[in-house]
Amino acid sequence: MTKYSILMLTKEREEFLERLQELGVVDITRSVKPIDDNSRKLFGEITKSKSTLEILDKYDFSNDVDYQQITELAKRVEIPAEKVEFVNQQSAKLRELNSALAATEREIKARLPWGEYNKESIQKFEALGYKLHFYCVDKKSFDPSWINEYPLQVITTDDKKCWFVIISENGSDYKFKLSELPAPEGDYKEAKAELDRIKYDIIECKASLLKVKESANIIKDDYSEQLAELDKYLAAAATKKAAEDMITVITGFAPVDEEQRLCEEFDKMGIYYIKEDAVEEDNPPIKIKNNWFARQFEVFTGMYGMPVYSEFDPTVIVAPFYLLFFAMCLGDAGYGLVLLLFGLMLNKGWVKIGMFDGLGTIISILGAGTAVVGTILGTFFGMSLVELSWVPEWLKSCMIVGKIELFGMGEFDIQMILAVCIGIFHICIALIVKAICYTKRFGFKNSISAWGWLLLILGGVIIATLGIGKIISPEAIKWAVIVVGVISALGIYIFNTPGRNPLINIGSGLWDTYNMATGILGDVLSYIRLFALGLAGAKLGEAFNDLAGMTLGESFLTWIPFILILIFGHVLNILMSSLGAFVHPLRLTFVEYFKNAGYEGKGNKYNPLTKNKIE
Questions:
Q1: Residues 516, 522, 525, CA angle at the centre, nearest 5°?
Q2: Taken in order 98, 103, 109, 113, is the CA torsion positive or negative?
Q3: Where are the domains of the chain?
Q4: Whether 460 contacts 484, CB under 8 Å
Q5: Which residues pair with 455 in a beta bridge?
Q6: CA 244 and chain centroid, separation
Q7: What is the structure's pLDDT at 369?
Q8: Is 454 strand, coil or helix?
Q9: Phi and psi angles of residue 250, each rounded to the nearest 5 degrees, phi first
Q10: Backbone angles phi, psi at 138, to 5 degrees
Q11: pTM (2 decimals)?
């Protein structure tokens, strides 16, 4: 990044900020909250516009039974200039109409058995001293003898119910064993007419929303302009004023490759500016650059925090390891193919699910990786590929399955050993990154302790590997351990902070030793989750396969429960396993890797002043 300190007359500030928006590459420190009534007003307008766009995106009437009538009516609808307020009004009206529609349908259902009901006639009848009592009972529970005992009239019957009324005189001692129903509110035809009116109002409301949706780009453009206006306002509010408010000093940052273009524009505007290389003390914004593959995983780096200016962008390491961890946790080649297909369908627009918008590519990558790793781990929809006769022998020879004898301590699952080895490798990479980055940021003199720990752990792993493989002799191992131990001990205990009292350094080194000894062991064991989650998913998939297989018989109909159990079981397993495969690799990255790599993640994302704020 290049830092620009710009001086100008305060009256020229608005014009200058307009020009910066057009250039779209200079990041100015902004206020993160509304700072006055004006900014609060802008925030309110932005919130309304965003809400309106979300409302319009939610409505899709293409599958509506009245779609043709809605589209015809939409052609004649006149939309007011204030579209945002109109959409909110129509949306609220549509909700009310849908509630009224449901209530009216219930009312029709309640009134229909009573036939053509005239409330005024009933009131006249009651004025003569009589009262109607309304009842409904199961048809099989209706006792015909009631007709002889009471002045009873059956109104309607169907296959299940019987509706009837009983007449009594006012003041008489009237009793009946059934609970009385309230009198109908009116004739069912009246309710039917009200239902038709509500349905038409709903069609009108939908037609209005459809008409506005056709011009949603206008609202989107207004929304973009509002964002840009707020962005400029907060940028202006963040500028420093000097010389009795006559001169404005603006500090901004822009990528180095934009330096020539910016300088030419500033020279044309005739402003005074100073440019210099940004340094860590300036806390400049961060614009990370990665290849296509790593760029898909930048979202995970952003979830933890952007690197500070002199830190190493961890995305290039996060990307391949997160893919590997996800694939091992899911661990099933069949499930990987499902995710791959799902991601491709999202990218093609064949499937639209709001929470997965823009994630089709990374889902496809994770699915493809899982398909490959799942094949190596020997699992396909809960089936063991090693046990399937149709799987080629050359492919089986590539699979990492079974158990292995380890140091005479018994047999261990080879996939568990693989998970631990991957954890050791991952942590060693973290320690290498930490040592290199600390040296770059703070100098070698202040990074000796990091190099000491790197030498001790990485050297120990290398020596142990060479010894287990019997590549070097026991005598060579002994001297290698002595050399690595002495050199790393000097870095950890004696020279960890040059210039400080050696006794204090030793005490500090002992404390670091305690933390490293307890931390590293726990970190390495934490990677066993890569094996455990994959194993759990495979066993659950196998259980569903066995359960489905138990339903098969000689009849063709037994294939129906077989297929249903397989579909339900594996869909459920994919959903649960995918959740675990998403969360646990994040844990291994954010805790085990970032902690051992010394990653802070306290940087600010590059956010240039621009007119187009919608990505």
A1: 135
A2: negative
A3: 1-17+242-285, 30-106+193-237, 118-183, 292-409+545-597, 417-526
A4: yes
A5: none
A6: 49
A7: 95
A8: helix
A9: -115, 135
A10: -60, 140
A11: 0.67
